[in-house]
Task: structure prediction
Amino acid sequence: MLEILGKQAQAAARTLAHISAQQKNLALAAIATALRRSIPQILEQNALDMQNAQTNGMSRAFLDRLRLDSTRIEKISDSLLDVASLEDPVGRVLEQHVRPNGLRIQKVAVPLGVIGVIFEARPNVTADSAALCLKSGNAVILRGGSDAIHSNTAITSVIRTALDQSGLPADCVQLVEDTSRESSVALMRLSEYVNVIIPRGGRGLIRSVIENATVPVIETGAGTCHIYVDRAADAEMAAKIIYNAKTSHPSVCNAVECILVHQDIAATALPVIAAPLLEAGVEIRGDRQTCAYLPGAVPAQQDDWGREYGDLILACRIVQDLEEALDHIQNYGTGHSEAIITKDALAADHFLESVDAAAVYHNASTRFTDGGEFGLGAEIGISTQKLHARGPLGLRELCSMKYKIYGEGQVR
Amino acid sequence: MLEILGKQAQAAARTLAHISAQQKNLALAAIATALRRSIPQILEQNALDMQNAQTNGMSRAFLDRLRLDSTRIEKISDSLLDVASLEDPVGRVLEQHVRPNGLRIQKVAVPLGVIGVIFEARPNVTADSAALCLKSGNAVILRGGSDAIHSNTAITSVIRTALDQSGLPADCVQLVEDTSRESSVALMRLSEYVNVIIPRGGRGLIRSVIENATVPVIETGAGTCHIYVDRAADAEMAAKIIYNAKTSHPSVCNAVECILVHQDIAATALPVIAAPLLEAGVEIRGDRQTCAYLPGAVPAQQDDWGREYGDLILACRIVQDLEEALDHIQNYGTGHSEAIITKDALAADHFLESVDAAAVYHNASTRFTDGGEFGLGAEIGISTQKLHARGPLGLRELCSMKYKIYGEGQVR
Result:
């Protein structure tokens, strides 16, 4: 069954790889229009998923991720037009040079081929992933969670019809309708047809993909981000940045989860940093020293270090120096986004050089780790692995490359 | 046991990531000198491996790959100096730009971290892989085959002593002494400490790594390369290129294994192409039509298509047109190197655009797919996968990247 989807995807990918940017953009616009026109039908199917989720006693946060309404579908539709407006990454000449023997060597961007996206309960991922894969010339096989199957089926059906009407193969976008664990594992192991698997979801999903996949994987998402407040920090700036990084969107992966404060500045800076946080209802879980400085803090447990709360909770630890902060980040960070607040340029350089993460900041909020904020356009996730792509996974990162070599009869 | 090696490698990698190019080059030079000085000891250990291999009745080709002599060790030593002379890939600024909000975003190359190299019976891979990993700032864990264990142990010991004397951690280069299948699988699954696994060997090894690894893999090596002789080919040029691609080094992965000849040119071109090949002792396995044109050819079987002979054997098929050649390559190619010989620029463009392989050639020998020939310096293999690196896997491809972001208090 999955083998058939794989074959179809591969055939579609071979056509799609040579389709012009204009035709892809027209297809994206057609999908955007079709989604708006199909709002009633999509909402009807989403209502079935919502009913099931309520019956199954899912949490409010879960229901919120699953729920669609007109505004949300219009937003999805708009984001397709955003993707259409981005530069086509395919065919870009990445490097070229002429060898002494006259061979002209060109390195050009090409699509990856077939991408498998395995995700959980957010139906917007369906349209979103389809658009990014389409624009980068890749066919996609989507495998969403069972909780969103009605919504995903409805959205995929709208996309496939619009593709067909735009003269592109409908099989550029396919949904695995079987939502069993077996189908998920089968997709991860479909290495004859699938070039990359991108899991979009929690740690459990990502771990299962790494454990089982034979197809190459791009890990995304896990983010335990730290902000280190150096001895030479401007306490007001630190307070502003930490407030932003914790409260502007606590559930996302680039939100800060733990702050590390230099002992020399802790007594004066901590109250400045903590006041707006406590006022916004943030729970601060501090080490012994933090609790001594901040009566509003609660004692942290060992398992608070390295934890991704995704909530209005912030761990706080006093460190002796920059080196201890670096050690903490090395031990507990997930290689996503880490920041230092300091006026000391040498300390900043040392931090940016030493921290092994996708994005390392000096005097800025970790919340900027995002394709749009980096000026790279929409992204399918934030890669926390080192191979192929690190940080925002945008259109360029959804490409591979090949060498084209032009000769006049050269032999070696 | 492997966990200990992993921890040591990770610690060494953290030091190595921040070592200057000069210091790495001095270490490479020290290793090169130490290897020359240790020729007697290394040869003594190699003799033990050779004795065992002979006792085990290994093939002549196998014994040749395993065998070291003074000249070969001197060549290994020289290649270390070549690596030292290459540009340091670490710290290279890949992109930078300033955002409208003033954030300065810099994308810089950083080492991958810890690389696991799993290889078979060629002891030169030990020094070779160690040098490329060292220069690119990565610690390496080497796991060679049991047949070369004495040679590999001797070479690794020389390298580690030289590293130590150069002030670098000896654990930058470690050898897994346990050559059981279990140790190999354990290394592939050491995802807490190892960032990438590179298998260097035959298809069986590569398949085992893909099947078992949880660490990300870069596949290398499998090469079934084709040369398509178009209707508008210069037969003399085709003959020269094919002769070179088949006979200059038949056992390597960029050698041609199959030629596809357009039916309109077959009658005149085939004899021109075949004459020097037959004279050089190449066995031509042709389809029915080929055999009709070439009395010297033997009939090909179905399993000759897609086969990597690594020997003086060449499959040959007559095709109706360019499309049939493209279909054949799509079905039987391994995505390594493919070539078209033609004077027709449009046919060449279509071929270079359509073929999905690491390197696609117009009027040149497939034998050029090589880091040195591409002007990229030494390589650890030819990647035939699409993720991270495709084609020659040199120093740049042994790097990851990170974003450094410089702000003045920006929040989102």
The CA atoms of residues 117 and 198 of chain B lie 5 Å apart. The first strand of chain B starts at residue 93 and ends at 98.
